[in-house]
Design a protein that fits this description.
Transferase(Phosphotransferase), domain 1, 22% helix
């Protein structure tokens, strides 16, 4: 039987019918099939046409088969080639139906059309409509907290890959997928045919425009873990701030010196920026390519994240060896996510310790709504009763409302581990009758609870659940957790705007 347009046959004679296009990367296009849990990666040439010549088919077939033989870690969320295509360079891979690419976080034409004028809240009324819609889309897709958590999960995947001596090679928003449901942040990497062991020369350079490390764009290298780190940092900064880290006033036309016309010409200016020839937009030592666009970084980035971006795009721009490794990112991103609260007024996320520089209050920096009641867990390394408590090793903050159950992850009660830091250990809820603490079905931590403002109170072992009577507006209690590293956790529910 002859093959029809938009129909593809794999090596096992299975027929796949093309459905929705998901994205286009450095060397091909990815689309869903009529099977909701399968997708196809189709290799294209420089003109965007499918690669079908016999010599190329053989070359790509060998490469895809090598990927299937790589010693990838178990339970790693990467969609590897499951079946190669016949007559086309490409392959079939698993991709769950409820997943969308990271590019979903940016406002596209259809999403913009779905936001009508009545959807734009009053606190955004003074902003141009197209910019206001970006903010609406930002909080509709989970806001800052979901983006930080998604990036933390992605960095953890890459860290496991790098830890096994391999690089991903083509990180972009089109190759990272997240669960569509806003309450779920499961992350998968697709487009796995570029995964390989680190090599310094002799192979083709593959990257997605705007995200490739300068040494790749300038053809000075063929890809290393440091190249992955640059691409990941670009995705992260762009995702959080809604601005590319190298598209500043030299690129967007606001440079008064008209640098583009003087030296390179307007058609080349963006290429120069992506090649790392300009400082990044928030460079602390060079403001020649600064930008006031995007969301305020002071509201988005913790001190640790700011340092990671500065080291990656500052000194790391021209020297890959000075970039932070991928292992620095997961913990910093998870810590930041755990410091955010959601404003009940505008649904934007902000850091709980935000203090307005003029009023000195903790009201929402976007719409000025007072801070909601919050649960604060300060986790301290326990070194014995005769040792003082220093700064908390972890802080978990979350808005809490009546009869709403919060899930407390393992990273609050033990050392941070990328593989299991999200495991639910506790469930905490608040009501007029007090605070209920329950052990999760998946919890492994040995936990004891003491009600009172001081840790000297008698601790009661948590077997199933414990109730604490809520006596004051600023209720405090303590938890002692033992798993791998003992933790003393100070717990407080704080209500009010101050």
């Amino acid at each position: 039987m002859s093959q029809r347009l938009n129909e593809y046959v794999d090596e096992y004679q299975n027929l796949h019918i093309q459905a929705k296009v998901l994205g286009q990367g450095g060397q091909g296009i990815v689309f869903r099939t009529k099977d909701p849990d399968l997708a196809i990666k189709l290799i294209t040439d420089e003109s965007g046409n499918p690669v079908t010549d016999e010599k190329s088919l053989e070359r790509y077939s060998k490469r895809f088969k090598r990927v299937r033989l790589l010693p990838l870690p178990e339970n790693l969320n990467i969609s590897v080639p499951a079946a190669l295509l016949q007559n086309n360079a490409g392959y079939v891979m698993q991709l769950l139906s409820d997943m969308v690419p990271f590019s979903h976080f940016w406002l596209d034409g259809k999403s913009a059309e779905d936001i009508i004028p009545d959807d734009i809240p009053e606190w955004l009324s003074g902003m141009p409509e197209d910019e206001a819609k970006k903010i609406v889309h930002y909080y509709r897709t989970g806001g800052l907290r979901r983006r930080l958590h998604a990036l933390y999960k992605c960095a953890s995947l890459l860290a496991r890959l790098h830890g096994n001596g391999m690089i991903y090679g083509d990180i972009s928003p089109h190759n990272i997928f997240i669960s569509k449901g806003i309450e779920d942040s499961s992350i998968w990497l697709i487009d796995a045919d570029n995964i390989r062991f680190e090599i310094t020369s002799g192979d083709s350079v593959v990257y997605t425009p705007k995200y490739g490390a300068p040494e790749l764009v300038q053809y000075k290298d063929c890809g290393r873990p440091s190249s992955d780190c640059h691409a990941f940092a670009v995705v992260a900064f762009y995702l959080l701030s809604l601005i590319h880290p190298f598209v500043g006033k030299k690129v967007d036309g606001t440079d008064e010196d008209d640098w583009a016309n003087q030296e390179n010409g307007e058609e080349d200016i963006e290429d120069c920026a992506y090649a790392g020839l300009f400082p990044w937009v928030d460079d602390q030592n060079d403001g020649s390519n600064s930008s006031d666009s995007g969301l305020p970084r002071s509201l988005l980035l913790t001190e640790k994240l700011t340092a990671l971006f500065e080291d990656t795009f500052g000194k790391g721009r021209t020297n890959p060896l000075l970039r932070p490794t991928i292992y620095h990112w997961p913990e910093a991103l998870a810590q930041a996510a755990d410091m955010t609260i959601m404003c009940p007024g505008c649904s934007m996320n902000y850091y709980y310790d935000f203090i307005h520089p003029e009023t000195k209050d903790h009201n929402c920096p976007y719409c000025k709504t007072p801070r909601p009641p919050i649960l604060i867990l300060d986790s301290y390394q326990w070194n014995g009763a005769d040792k003082p408590l220093h700064l908390p090793s972890w802080r978990y903050v979350h808005e809490i409302s009546q009869d709403t159950e919060l899930t407390i992850p393992r990273r609050v009660l033990d050392e941070f581990e990328m593989l299991d830091s999200d495991i639910a250990e506790l469930l905490i809820s608040s009501s007029d009758n007090g605070i209920l603490i329950k052990k999760s079905d998946h919890g492994k931590v040995d936990l004891s609870i003491a009600s009172g403002s001081q840790p000297q109170h008698e601790f009661q072992k948590l077997s199933s659940q414990i109730k604490i009577d809520q006596m004051t507006p600023e209720t405090q209690f303590w938890m002692f957790a033992q798993l791998n590293s003992p933790r003393l956790v100070k717990c407080m529910i704080s209500g009010g705007s101050k």
